[in-house]
Amino acid sequence: MSDDTDLHHPVDLAALADSARADPALFESRSVEPVFARRVLATPLHMNVAAESRTNLWTDWNGYTVAEVLSDIEDEYRVLRHAAALADISPLFKYRISGREAAAFLARFAAGDISALRVDGTLPVVFCEDRGFVVGDGLLFRLGDDEYRLVTEEPHLAWLLDSAIGFAVQVEDVSSTLAAISLQGPLSARILSAANFAGVETLAPHAARWFDVAAQPVYVSRTALSGDAGYELWVDPEDASHIWSLLLAHGAPFGLAATGFALREIARVEAGRARAGRDYFGAFSAVEPESASTPFELGLAGLVDLDRGHFTGRNALRAAKSAPLRHTFSMLAIDWPEPLSFIGIHAGADMAGVATSTAFSWSLGKNLALAMLKPEFLDKPRKLHIEAEMRHGFEVRRVIVPARLVSGPAPMGPKP
Amino acid sequence: MSLPEKNFDVIVIGGGHNGLVAAAYLAKAGRRVLLLEASDRLGGALATEDITPDYRISTGAQMIDMLPRRIEKDLKLAGHGLRYAARYVPTIALNPTNGHLVLSRRRRDIEVLRKKSARDADAYLAFSKRMKSYAALIAPFLDKAPFAPGQSAARSALRRLVWRGALLDAASREALLRDLPGSIGHMLDDAFETPILKGALAFDTLVGTAAGPYDAGTVLRGIYRKAQRLAGAGAWVPQGGLGAFVDALAAAAAGLGVTIEVSAPVARILVQGEAVVGVETAAGETFHAPQVLSSIHPRATLLDLLGANRLDAGLVARLSRIPTRGATAKLNLALSGLPTIQGLAPAEYGARLIVAPSLDDIQEAHAQAKRGTFASNPVMEVTFPSVADPTLAPVGHHVMSIAIQYVPYEAEGGWDDKRDRLIDRAVETLSIYAPDLKQRIVAGELLLPADLERKFGLAGGDWHQGELRPDRLLSFRPTPELAQYGTPVAGLFLCGAGSHPGGGVTGMAGRLAAEAALARRARA
Ligand SMILES: Cc1cc2nc3c(=O)[nH]c(=O)nc-3n(C[C@H](O)[C@H](O)[C@H](O)COP(=O)(O)OP(=O)(O)OC[C@H]3O[C@@H](n4cnc5c(N)ncnc54)[C@H](O)[C@@H]3O)c2cc1C
């Protein structure tokens, strides 16, 4: 991320206070989903995580109860950047794809070229429907010659099954039969070594393999959905608790701590990674075509290969490639020394877009936003700003702060 | 088979009537065409075959009532031997008690109805007029390729439709809006009181579908069928049965230079890059052409012959969900003489006879089929083709065609022990009208939907290669992206009943697909 010098805070807070008024919306609690659509599930690691909670702050992730923050978000952030952060990521959706035509099925399913994916390798994928709109994205694992696993943020079983018509392939939802633990941070490898994951230091980035730990098989991948240096462990639910305890015990001397969902979100925003359902609507959740996105509009062109064989959405994407983008997924930095809350991205009097995820990065001392912007504000860079409301007692103040486009996601932590 | 020539301009898959029509039009436009038919005879569901030696019958379709005269003329079918044994075959609703009803607007027939119900006699004229005016709104859409949604032509067509609709008087307009989404059963209940009249009119709407009389959307189906019939010239029966019609069509196609091969099932459609380059037969022979038209079920064409991996998953899912389950069985009987139908005038034995005494009987049969069985009094359409065409049976003997409506594709507990019971039920029910039928039966053949599938290569035994539901007509047939006959694979077209305007002996899918292919070629 380039350093910016011409940024300044043009607003005098004291002057703003005069114009401030209380916004009742600030005091409302909002529920995103209707009650009937909610599920209350516990992950196999729920008791272990609960034992680490000093806050009793929980949140909902895909219907699972997960910790929002376990101790203090700033402490957790420091652990992630300087030691290693342990987290329960079992609520991710996991699909087992197997059978004689599994590779052919995935070649038609994903927009990218998966032919280079070897056994024990991983590959980020995006998949589209017929109109070229993104249905979802995820990480594809190859577990065997004819066996793959797709890990996604949102459920996709129906689309996977529709896509399987005409292929000798079996698709199973293994989400609840597979627990997942993430271990992220600069000391992750050393902690795994200490916990007897023999030879983990030889595991290359994006690779995965089986380890036998305390007579339990654990599949470890050197991956992170947040894009940072770290590992993800895929274990049987009945073994999960033991592995978790093992890591906590061996990690303590290194400063390891259990962390919650809020930290995962901050790391994700720092990495500039869109989350399905949060930063973009999957094609089947978007009510209007305008709310759906092509991979190009999500900045995922790198996951699309139009020149290999057929895949779902290819014809539409060929046309979309030369068509103007309707919106673009971008990352913005907002120089303000404390967390801000805002949604709109403005350019003068115009709305330039909407911030879909925001986070305060303690490493950078800045606010970051992932935003869906109208493309005309990218082509001819205009000065963007955000308007945030800050609460002081029963008053709110409005601050207007310049927002700066960040050209590409830059990993915040040490390079993998 | 081993043809010396392997390279053509166009290959047509399937020698049903639509495939033959498509091939003939393409050849007429100067294309070198190869037609490959899987079975050892052409015609698909149009066939004249022996029930038993010396008794011949149209084993599948019976009548031609939707074939545009233009196709007959363009292809000079009369010059290739097509003769008609009967024209303007009337439809008669058989009454189990007394007084059969001829469904027509002739004064004499209306007076017969008036004796039963004065109200219905008046209502019948009004009803016919109403259906005809609705049909006239749809008719202009049947003789051209459906519009792609969003196309400007689609918008102007819609505007024209609204404009024509606006020409209706206020009462008709209101009636149209009320009737269109509804069920034929409710519409008839509102209009009439005579059970056999309602039964026959409902049967006419529903024959060849799996829909029930009180299913929403069946009014539209009735209007659609009526509109298709406006293109034809009344119900005609070819001399020598429907097989003779196919012979004329095949002769016309051959005369125009089409190379026709039977017993040559296509196993694969060959693609290079993103364009079609030919086909491979089950015997492993390959033929090359830059265009391929397939008259078989869209699903079979695209999933079995082409392969799902060349198509988008959404399209594949939509194709795999095309409802394709026929609910009509065919019973063909050889008779030692004409049975006596009480109250039927001698001249009326050549008519199309409908055995559906009431809406309740139809509803019951439909309900039974849904349960995987059949009604004890099935509803049926009966003809004696040998009355108008004595060549079909020995002198004094006859053949009888019976279409039994609402026979499930799969029976609860399997069909094996039920075939004979279904025949019994059909014959018993018919014996109410013709008590001497049983003693005249020489031989017979029952074709269940699954038999029709096997015999004619008709997927699911469905007459239409995919049900003619309102949501599967026009620009939605067989799926929105395939409605203009083309497919995502350049050079590959659909030309069978699965495409607009649907099943029945119309030849229209074949003709319109040929036009689409010719237009594409001309541009290329
Ligand atoms: C019992 C019955 C009664 C009917 N009565 C009437 C009626 O009275 N009036 C009316 O208008 N309609 C009637 N119909 C409907 C009408 O017969 C059909 O809608 C019409 O025949 C469909 O024609 P088609 O050419 O589109 O398809 P089809 O006739 O199904 O032709 C498809 C052809 O493709 C061939 N084929 C299949 N697979 C392959 C392959 N892989 N390679 C090469 N060839 C292949 C098949 O053998 C067949 O010949 C009736 C149908 C049935 C079953």
Notes on the protein architecture:
The complex is a heterodimer of chains A (416) and B (524). Chain A is an alpha+beta fold and 416 residues long. Chain A is 21% helix and 31% strand. Chain A has a six-stranded mixed beta sheet with strand order 11-12-13-10-4-14. In chain A, a hairpin with a 2-residue loop joins strand 16 (344-347) and strand 17 (350-361). The longest helix of chain A has 15 residues, at 237-251. Chain A is globular, with a radius of gyration of 22 Å. Mean pLDDT of chain A is 89; it is low at 1-24 and 409-416. Helices cover 39% and strands 16% of the residues of chain B. Chain B has helices spanning 17-28, 69-74, 107-116, 118-142, 152-167, 170-179, 184-191, 195-206, 218-231, 241-255, 298-306, 313-320, 359-370, 385-388, 419-431, 437-440, 449-456, 508-523; strands at 10-13, 33-36, 48-52, 55-58, 84-86, 91-93, 101-102, 237-238, 259-261, 266-272, 275-281, 286-288, 291-294, 328-335, 352-355, 379-383, 398-405, 441-447, 492-494. In chain B, a hairpin with a 4-residue loop joins strand 11 and strand 12 (286-288). In chain B, helix 3 packs across helix 4. Chain B is globular, with a radius of gyration of 23 Å. The relative contact order of chain B is 0.19. The structure holds flavin-adenine dinucleotide. Flavin-adenine dinucleotide (FAD) binds next to helix 1, strand 14 and helix 17 of chain B. Residues 13-19, 36-39, 44-46, 60-63, 66, 265-266, 295-296, 328, 330, 403, 452, 456-458, 463-464, 496-497, 503-505, 509 of chain B line the site of flavin-adenine dinucleotide.
Put the structure in a nutshell.
The complex is a heterodimer of chains A (416) and B (524). Chain A has 416 residues and is of the alpha+beta class.
What summary fits the major beta sheet of chain B?
Answer: 7 strands, mixed
The CATH superfamily name of the domain at 10-44 and 67-82 and 240-322 and 465-523 in chain B is: FAD/NAD(P)-binding domain
Corresponding CATH superfamily of the domain at 39-90 and 178-269 in chain A: Probable tRNA modification gtpase trme, domain 1
Instruction: Tell how many strands the DSSP assignment of chain B holds.
Output: 19
Q: Which runs of chain A of at least 5 residues are low in confidence (pLDDT < 50)?
A: 1-24, 409-416
Strand order in space, largest sheet of chain A? 11-12-13-10-4-14
CATH topology of the domain at 10-44 and 67-82 and 240-322 and 465-523 in chain B: FAD/NAD(P)-binding domain
Proportion of residues in β-strands of chain B? 15-25%
